[in-house]
Amino acid sequence: MILATPLDQAWAKLAALAPARGTIAGHTGVAVLDMTDPTHPKRVATLVTPAMQTPHESVNISVQRGILAAVMGNPGANVGQVDVYDVSADCRHPQLLSSTPLGVFGHESGFAPDGRTFYSASPGTATIFALDLDDPRLPKLLWTGNYDSHGIS
């Protein structure tokens, strides 16, 4: 996670996200850690919606908008389910806004600077897509391109 602005740094002092590979301490999904005391992080939630089960490198936050999104990174088993959460009120307790099968295939992601467009790329399938998150409760597919990319941010 790159902490580029004071707002990014303030957010990171409160919470951290840890995508699991497989099961960690009996949990699957993305662990939400309370980082109020960074020497003693505490798991306060586990995000278990479809995209949070296999997000690969796609868990991403728009600090400006206070939203978190990820795309399911398992093209062999399912389409790119996209999950969007509100983290603006308390980043330690994300609130699910939507879970939709709009992501085509997924592996990694990024937000536009204004946080209104979510991008995902799948290097194995040469697919990039853009989702309109102007209303994060109702994402809309804006564009799909046939490009091989690894390193979207």
Describe, in plain words, how this protein is organized in 3D.
8% of the residues lie in helices and 37% in strands. It is built from two helices and eleven strands; from the N terminus they run αβββαββββββββ. It has helices at 6-14, 50-53, and strands at 15-19, 30-34, 42-47, 60-62, 67-71, 82-86, 95-100, 108-111, 117-122, 127-132, 140-145. The radius of gyration is 15 Å and the shape is globular. The termini are close together.
What's the quick description here?
The chain is mainly β. The chain has helices spanning 6-14, 50-53; strands at 15-19, 30-34, 42-47, 60-62, 67-71, 82-86, 95-100, 108-111, 117-122, 127-132, 140-145. The longest helix has 9 residues, at 6-14.
Key structural traits:
disordered N terminus; 2 helices; single chain; mainly beta; 4-stranded antiparallel β-sheet; globular; 153 residues
